[in-house]
Amino acid sequence: MVPPSSKKVFVLDTNVLLHDPNSILHFQEHDVVLPIVVIEEIDHFKKDQTEIGRNARTISRMLDKLRASGSLSRGVALGDGGSLKVDVESHPLDLGILREDKHKADNQILACAKQLLGTSKEKVVLVTKDTNLRIKADAIGILAEDYTTDRVEMDELYSGHKSWEVDPAQVDLLYDGGLPPDPELHLQPNQFVTLMDRSNPSHTALARFMAGEALLRPMRRIEAYPWGIKPRNREQQFAMELLLDPTVQVVTLVGKAGTGKTLLAIAAGLQQVVDDEAYDKILVSRPVMPMGRDLGYLPGDVGEKLRPYMQPIYDNLEFIVAANTEARRRSTMTAGQLEEAGYLSVEPLTYIRGRSIPKQYLVVDEAQNLTPHEVKTILTRAGEGTKVIFTGDPYQIDNPYVDSSTNGLSFLADHFKHLDVSGHVTLMKGERSKLAELASNLL
Fold first, then answer.
1. Cystine design at 375: which of 47, 156, 201, 408 (Cβ 3.0–4.6 Å)?
2. Beta 76-77 vs 31-35: how paired, if at all?
3. Do 151 and 407 touch, CB atoms closer than 8 A?
4. 134-187 pLDDT per residue, tens
5. What is this structure's pTM?
């Protein structure tokens, strides 16, 4: 008796390729099949001036390059022992639906998978990010899965913080040359630790793991709070530590609405640009999700059209300017004056593509709406001496093509956690108001 093959055949839906153009390379020794209707759908998206359009063009170029290895209809070899085949056959599939619906792309993909299921010796799996298509596949006996290569489950997302119960002498040692951490903690570079005294639970200390020294160091004492913005809780202290450290070039701040992510990032940026002159300018940006649909209906020029989408940033700026004025007991520059003086620039992410951004403090707000590829595009814009801060809430996503597990912010936090130049903090407590905290927790 011939043992069943461990090799699998993966039939990919169009949305998998549009989500990750390199997806065909991520199935190791297994075979990948693309129904011909998928190629037709890719062609439909290729002219879009969006991330989806760019991904469509990328996968088209990749498939065209693979043609040099042989006929796509017969199959070409991929790097890890698998193969790629474009199925050009027409497969009948009666789902008991109207005749015109039988020609829908989804049903043609199902028909291809069903045909392979009956003829292939290997296990056949349909891979799609379409929940309803997975349900339909299951209903007709086809194994279906989501594309999870770039998923970061939220309950497993790196938090940037751990607690450690220690002896009183270890707390003292922290402030006297640093404390070697317990290897069982498995700390990442720039991860924060709360040391708790075993004999006195109220006796605690906050530390940061310096990977280069393999030591826990106490957090730095802030003599003057950036532009009058004082951290109100432990996680905000962690965030401020990373934001004010020039050796940490990439910072990710994750938290629900009202936890102070954007406020802290902008305040620390103004401190380092206006007062310390560590960077030439602070550039604050955010994705404008509705731009392609309703931006043109707003009155005014481009700047006036964009103002409503950028208004949350200006709200934070006005709060910071007021806090700075109160802290210094003298008037300071307004948000408009900061822009006019060249200290500050607020613009949508659309304008960042193709640029080189040296020696700037870049804040990317609402980064949960970005795809991993868009995050990569932003980071590759960073020139020498630039610091990039990504802020967002993975549970508040407006982009229909990503979710809490596949968005660029979660992806970046998980993939950069082992680097010395990166730091991450998950902020838990809302500080906007009691009402905002209740709404965020209960609704």
1. 408
2. unpaired
3. no
4. 999 999 999 999 887 766 766 678 899 999 999 988 988 999 989 999 999 999
5. 0.77
